[in-house]
C-alpha cells in the first residue's frame, strides 16, 4: 500500500489538519515545554482506530538534549535505563529513567549507530565507522566482535540491528558511516552491495537481502513471520519493504508496504504487539525545483515544510497511516521502554523525547 503525505493530511481533515499542525508547531518551540493541554495536540489521529492507543492525559516530553545526531535507542528494563547513540560525537549516552540523569556510557564508541538488547540482556551495537563491525557488550563489560567481514571483505557501515527470538541477529549495512566525515571517517566500500545480514547462533554471517540500496531500519512483526526493512533510496521514495521469513532464516515474498512520498523520509522504526509500525519521520532534504527570493537572495528551500514532517508516523500492519506524533526535531529512531513497555522513546536530532501510550513494544 503506497501512502503519501498528501493523503495523510487529507485523512487528518485537510485544512483543519494543516491548521492543527501549525498550532502544534507553535506550542513546541524551543526551549521545549510540554503542552499544557490534554489531550496533547501533538498527537494527531489520522484514523479513529488509533484512539485506543492515545492516553488522554499523556504528553510529549523532552527528557534529554545536547546531542548532535541522536540514534539507536535501546531500553534495559533491569536497570531502568536507555542507551542511545550520539553518532558525530562518537559516544553512547545513558538516560537513567529513575533519576533523570543523562550521562556518557561509552566514549569513544566507534561511531555507534543502532543498539539493541539481546535475549540475555546484553547490548548489541552497530559500530558505524572506523571499526565497521557489530559487537556485543558482555555482562563483565568486555566486547565480543560478532561480525566485521563478509566473504573476506570489510562490512560497509553497520546501521540498525534487531535480535530474533531464536537469538539470531539481523542488521543492515548501508554506506552512511563511510560516505563522509560527519558520522565517522570516509572510506572506500569493499562490499559490492548494501545488504541485510543474519548472524546465526553458530556465528555464521549470511547476506539475506542484497537488492536494496542502503537498507536502514528493520524490525520483525510480532509473530516474526514478516521482516520489515527501510530502503533509504527507494523507487523513487524511501520505502518499507515486507518480506516473508522462512523457517531456515531465508526471506522471500518481497512487497512494498509503505512509500514515504511528498517529502517524507523513513528512518528507524519499531513494531508494537498489535503489529503497528511506529516510524521515525522527517524531511528527506530534497530541494525545491525553483529558487525563492529571501532577503535579497535567490535560495533553493527544502520541498514542503520540514516543520510539518518532524515526528513519528504510525501505520497499521497493512500500511495504513493511523497517527502522527509531532516533534520539534526530526525523529531518526525510537523504541518502547519503561516499566510497562509502553513508554515511547524517540531519538530526534539533538534530543530524546518520550510519550507514554497504550501500545506496548512487541519485544
UniProtKB/TrEMBL annotation:
This protein's record includes keyword Electron transport: no
Family matches, as PROSITE patterns: TAT
Keywords tagged on the record: Hydrolase, Signal
Recorded superkingdom: Bacteria
Pfam families: SGL (PF08450)
Cleavable signal peptide: 1-26
Keyword hit for Transport: no
Occurrences of domain SMP-30/Gluconolactonase/LRE-like region (ranges): 69-350
Protein name (database record): SMP-30/gluconolactonase/LRE family protein
